[in-house]
Design brief:
Blueprint: H1 2-20, H2 31-35, H3 47-52, E1 56-57, E2 67-68, E3 71-73, E4 76-78
Antiparallel strand pairs: 1-2, 3-4
Length: 80
């Protein structure tokens, strides 16, 4: 049991680091759309506060703004 716990303590941080360092396209997002995000909040802003500002909230992918201004289109706003 001790050996398994020691292995997990080493392996889990390595796995998490490798997943969070992947570029957005590897997570399934269109990289060009994600790069267009203009920050509308601050780090750690709650979704409700972000949306109350009239902005979009999407907590993925990592390393890009999660609270961002929508793109305006004829039909309204578009959150990408």
């Amino acid at each position: 049991v001790e050996a398994c716990l020691a292995w997990l303590r080493v392996t889990i941080p390595i796995l998490l680091a490798s997943f969070t360092s992947l570029p957005p396209i590897a997570w399934g997002w269109d990289n060009s759309e994600v790069k267009l995000r203009q920050n509308c909040g601050y780090p750690g802003i709650p979704a409700k506060e972000c949306e109350a500002r009239g902005c979009c909230f999407e907590s993925n992918p990592p390393a890009v703004p999660w609270c961002f201004f929508p793109h305006l289109v004829e039909e309204g706003k578009l959150c990408v």
